[in-house]
Amino acid sequence: MTKTPQLIQDPRQLDQIAQKLKGSKAVAVDTEFIRETTFFPKIALLQLATLDEAWLLDPLALDKAMLAPILEIFADTKILKIMHAAYADQECLFWAYGMTATPVLDTAVAGALTGYGDNVGLGKLLKEVLRVNLPKGRARVKWLARPLPDDLRIYAEQDVAHLVEVGSILEKKLRSKNRWEWALEESLVEEKVFDVAPEDTARRIAKGGHFDPNAFPVLVELIRWREERARAANLPRGWVADNEILVALAKVQPASLDELRTFRGLNAKEVDRSGMRILEAIKKGRSAPKPDPAEFARAPMVEREDHLQEFIKTYVSFLADKHEIALRLLINAGKAQALAQNPIVDKERWVKEGLLSQRACELIGEDLSALLLGKRGLVLRNGRVEIMEFPGS
């Protein structure tokens, strides 16, 4: 029978735990949090483990000052933190404690670099690497409930209990493929990604092209308003106004409360509460400097380029399988499109312009160059796809 782990709520126990963690080269870290109805995630559980022992800490009873010995472990560059799909956990740590764990090996990233597939779930990874079967996932769990039921404590402990072991095995695989540093780079989550400037959010929303440059500064100011409103009220951004309604407002640029009330998707109570602030944002955006129209122009794909883009993606997908690595770590649709529109063979330029990362270029740059120069391609032999060299090319 599985022993139910203790939920640690006494700060006097933390120094002893921290001392054990300091003696480890690697520490597993996981969090459970709730954010369906809030802007800021509410951390509900903090799980830690070494190779031999695991702990469940209660952030509802232990504040930031009490957790200082543990947070020091998160910041200790001599101790590797093992996490799975680390982005959400790092975001939770950032908003709860103003920090992220470092250095980190994300086992989802490590799996993508060693042939276990892209975005591999922890359950599948542990089953394939360690032959360990995790309990079935818990959807919509009330992690903030106290006392926390026994089955949830057991489930939470299992999420970290095997991470150090699987991290060690994946490290050996990564080093054998000369991809260890690559994994650490891809596992890094910089704090700036959690506090994005309104201008950057607006560019991402308008990235699809065909966006009126005159509307862009208005969109920036509307996003700034939404961010301030969501944070102040601790509400999800979409509950205040979703991206679609902000784009519509930026394009139409209503000048009165009556006009605002005609926009479907903008809550009437929100108009009553924030209508004047929204109009001020629109007015400010209209008077702001306009960006270069070229930033929003999207060159149309001609048929030849469209075919080349698909060919590049197919070829690199074959290389990804060959090298046991997730395709997204080599190339994505946008980068394949950029290569198709300007298929100049210049590996240094590819890296400089961000079409390939330095690591990806080292791995497949020569193959991709040979493809674009017509020296190499794919053929079907005996029902198998293979790379073929074209003599005399």
TL;DR of this structure?
The protein is an alpha/beta fold.
Features of the shown structure:
six-stranded mixed sheet, 8 strands, single chain, 393 residues, two-stranded antiparallel ribbon, Nucleotidyltransferase, domain 5, alpha/beta, 49% helix, DNA polymerase, domain 1, 18 helices
- Provide the CATH top-level class of the largest domain: Alpha Beta
Approximately how much helix is present in the residues?
A: 40-55%
Helical segment tally?
A: 18
CATH topological fold name of the largest domain: Nucleotidyltransferase, domain 5
Count of structural domains: 3
Structural class, from secondary structure content? Answer: alpha/beta
What's the total number of strands? Answer: 8
Task: Tell me about this structure.
- With 393 residues, this protein is of the alpha/beta class.
- 49% of the residues lie in helices and 11% in strands.
- The chain has helices at 14-22, 68-75, 86-97, 107-112, 122-130, 150-161, 163-176, 180-187, 198-206, 216-233, 237-240, 243-252, 257-260, 268-287, 303-322, 333-341, 347-352, 358-372; strands at 7-8, 26-34, 42-49, 54-57, 80-83, 104-106, 376-381, 384-389.
- A 6-stranded mixed sheet has the order 1-4-3-2-5-6, with helices on both faces. It has a two-stranded antiparallel sheet with strand order 7-8.
- Helix 10 (216-233) crosses helix 12, helix 10 (216-233) packs across helix 14 and helix 15 (303-322) packs across helix 18 (358-372).
- It is flat and about 65 Å long.
- The mean pLDDT is 93.
Secondary structure: elements and pairs:
Blueprint: E1 7-8, H1 14-22, E2 26-34, E3 42-49, E4 54-57, H2 68-75, E5 80-83, H3 86-97, E6 104-106, H4 107-112, H5 122-130, H6 150-161, H7 163-176, H8 180-187, H9 198-206, H10 216-233, H11 237-240, H12 243-252, H13 257-260, H14 268-287, H15 303-322, H16 333-341, H17 347-352, H18 358-372, E7 376-381, E8 384-389
Parallel strand pairs: 1-4, 2-5, 5-6
Antiparallel strand pairs: 2-3, 3-4, 7-8
